[in-house]
Amino acid sequence: MGVVFVSGIDTGVGKSVATGLMARFLARRGRSVITQKLVQTGCSEPVAEDIATHRRFMGIGLLDVDRDGTTCPLLFSYPASPHLAARLESRTVDVEAIDRATQRLAGMFEHVLIEGVGGVLVPLMEELTVLDFVAQRRYPLIVVGSLRLGSINHTLLTLEAAQRRGVAVRGLVLNGRHAAPEQIAADSKRLFLQALPRYGYPPVVVEIPDVRDESAPPAVDFAPLFDGGACPCPL
What we know:
This protein has helices spanning 15-28, 49-58, 64-67, 82-88, 95-108, 130-137, 151-164, 182-198, 223-226, and strands at residues 2-8, 33-37, 111-119, 123-125, 128-129, 141-146, 169-175, 205-208. By secondary structure, it is α/β, with parallel strands linked by helices. It has one domain (2-226): P-loop containing nucleotide triphosphate hydrolases (Rossmann fold, 3-Layer(aba) Sandwich), CATH 3.40.50.300. β6, α7 (151-164) and β7 form a beta-alpha-beta unit. It is globular and about 45 Å long. 44% of the residues are buried. Mean pLDDT is 94; it is low at 229-235.
């Protein structure tokens, strides 16, 4: 499978939970898997907070590649978009450092899941968005969304932006936290299943429950996102 990029429809939608659960699923199927964080902002720890979250959901401790910074080579203290967080520290987002880290991980593990930052149009630098980064590397994308009120607009905008850039989308992961009333949630899911093929993507939607206890992660079947291989990029 190689490298897969995990992005959200917005910030705080549950990318870290979804990434950790997907890594746990693959590991429990006997696959060699590692997660990477594209950039971590708002971080005062030596290891990216989202990486630590992934490991808790995977049921393992921190790894050597976490401690030496390979799984997240860029940490910034201010909680903002990477371009601003870097500028406030008189630094830049070094995409070559990110690529070197990914290449090293890909040489060590069969699967690399890269968690992004916020949504796909978040700027890494003034003229480079997350989606630019993904499109340039032709990484397949998994989009993490929700069934809360307002998610339809955010989700369809994300799919349309990905299609316009020729980025392959494997499907949606919908986080059950803050879900809208059942009538709205069910209709949102129906619309997403219809929209994915319209944009040229497989109609794959995986739901994860509202996870409160990281020590007891739920068993979620992510096979539809991984067993079919990379879907072709839309024309």
